[in-house]
Amino acid sequence: MDPDTLIPLEIETYAFDLDYANQNNQPKWYRAFSDRETYELKDLSPQSYYEQATQISLNQQAAQRYRNHMEIDHIENPD
Fold first, then answer.
1. CA distance readout (Å), 33 to 3, 23, 25, 58
2. 27, 35, 77, 78 — which has fewest CB within 10 A?
3. pTM of the entire structure?
């Protein structure tokens, strides 16, 4: 969080493979994606998210990218 604006500087989503975790009694976490990188946001301000939401509603490619990240199981584990 930016201490002056209280706007997040980064939002990252992490995930793990449930089958691996069940077999090894522990999860192996990996970084699935970053909001700023994935959605090409200049920052994580409400205005940036508003602009991205507008793109999602108008642009098929932006909408598909958003849909692909709604469920983490569509994101490849880098291992």
1. 24, 25, 24, 23
2. 78
3. 0.68
Flag residues of the chain having pLDDT under 50.
Answer: none
Predicted local confidence at residue 49, as pLDDT: 93
- Cα dihedral 68/73/78/79 (nearest 10): -160
Print the SS3 string covering 9-75.
Answer: CCCEEEEECHHHHHHHCCCCEEEEEEHHHHCCCCCCCHHHHHHHHHHHHHCHHHHHHHHHCCCHHHC
Closest by CA position to 30, among listed 76, 71, 68, 69:
76
Domain ranges of the chain: 12-74
pLDDT tens-digit map of 37-54? 988 899 999 999 999 999
* 66 vs 32: CA distance, rounded Å: 14
